Amino acid sequence: MLVPLAFMFVGAVKPNPDVLADGGSWRAFVPSGMTFDNFTSAWERSDFGRLLLNSLVVCGVTVVLGLIANSMFGYALARLRWTGRNLVLATVVALIIIPFEALAIPLLLFMTELGWLDTYQAQIIPFVANPFFIYLFYSFFTTLPRELEEAARMDGAGPWRTFRSVIVPLSRPAYASVAILSFLMNWGQLLWPVMVTRSESVRPLPVGMAVFQTLPPLQWGDIMAFAAMMTAPSLIVFLIFQRAFVQGVAAQAVKE
Predict the structure, then answer these.
(1) Domain 48-208+232-255 top-level CATH class
(2) Which of 119-128, 186-195, 214-223, 237-246 has the lowest average pLDDT?
(3) What's this model's pTM, rounded to 2 decimal places?
């Protein structure tokens, strides 16, 4: 995985004619004649700023709404007792194995009926509730000691107050893990945006990247620079939440 990344970042600072010149040797990973003109060219030719804003809006809103909805659903499955809970939990687990491609066409027809094509909400709403993230929260919540919740109830706290004041502060590793996974999943989403977007006004970066590769003239340095700028936000998000993400993974490993 590191080799393609290194080739991409080195190619982004090479003159366009030199990017593929040494593709079969170690020289491909050595920056020669470094220039940052590729970044300027890629930004201007692709309207990168607009594409970046679209991706940030879609990913940011999806992550925030997803954290709220999936954690509350996971808590209801883990701690509350209600009729049909086991059936719903089994359904959530079953939905994890269904690939998104199997649901894409029905979802597209539904978005068309709602008149949501070429909008932000068409790219956000279908990905807010995620069965994998619900189950991840459910698994984490079952590891938390019940004594803390019982103490909160003795103080007069209801389920919502208990969840907000006791469970959420203890579940930061789980929230960080889901936030990272959700952001990365939505940041690289290509199939669905291709299906529901028509104009550049709501087009995210992956679709912009696919279109940019077809624009003449074909400049590999510009393409590498575009890819490098597109990759940078996901690396930054991972570095920011890295410690909490590792803690969340470790907590799940201990549970297993």
Answers:
(1) mainly alpha
(2) 237-246
(3) 0.88
